[in-house]
Amino acid sequence: MSEKLKILLVEDDFNLGFVIQDQLKSEGYDVNLCSDGVDGLKKFNEELFHMCILDVMMPKKDGFTLAKDIRKINVDIPILFLTAKNQTEDKIEGFKSGGDDYLTKPFSTEEFLLRIKAILKRVNLIDGQAIETRFELGTIVFDSENFKLIYPNGEEKKLTKKETKILHLLVQNINKVLTRDIVLNAVWGQDDYFVGRSLDVFITKLRKYLKPDESVSINNIHGVGFKLEVGSGE
Fold first, then answer.
1. 129 located within any domain
2. DSSP for 174-217?
3. Which percentage of the chain shows pLDDT scores above 90?
4. N or C: lower Cβ tally within 10 Å for the chain?
């Protein structure tokens, strides 16, 4: 592979998680392992992945709910469910949640790896593909990998990790409404009142950083969330 494909693995069984992680690493994949759905969503927003492998029965946030949250951020990333359940209704729920495939435990290593390759092949990722980290917001360039904004005159604005995470979420959903709960859970891992107030402060800061280009705006959608819009400025 020209570039290591990055996989987010969310599995609450400690031993199984490490076994799967080792299997994937031995196949050349770069794997991040999380043990519950809340940490999984935070990790998904902290780094860029090519694929997600999610256990269904997990504490804090189950795999189906996590998949729905991931789909609100990224509609295209492949998702494979791992579960001890073998009921038809559970499989249907998995696909309704945004899953691309479903594997019932226990499973063979060979079948597991073949399923992953088949999914990646379907989305044209089997040979590796660079993950985009630079985005044009009007005349401003957002470099998410290096936590900065680059203005037309060459000046740069260094962003904090949380500012970068929030702006990256908005960029992934450009010209679409992004709900407050998704931002709060993806960045802070919770969505209570106090972190909600912190989010508003960060949004105000980001608006200030983007102000040099009047065609770029972060708009409040009352009672729902935010929308990053890039237009003509007219």
1. no
2. TTSEEEHHHHHHHHTS---HHHHHHHHHHHHHHHHHHTTSTTEE
3. 30
4. C
Q: Give the chain's mean pLDDT.
A: 84
Spatial distance between the Cα atoms of 32 and 11, rounded to a whole number of angstroms: 11
Question: b/e for 110-141, b at 16 or more Cβ within 10 A?
Answer: eebeebbeebbeeeebeeeeeeeeebebbebe
**Predicted local confidence at residue 152, as pLDDT:** 92
pLDDT at position 233 = 46
pLDDT number for residue 232: 53
Overall domain count for the chain: 2
Task: Choose one of 80, 102, 122: the last residue of a domain.
Answer: 122
User: SS in 3 state form for 109-151?
Assistant: HHHHHHHHHHHHHHCCCCCCCCCCCEEEECCEEEECCCCEEEC
- Which residue in this structure is represented by tokens 């189950």? 62
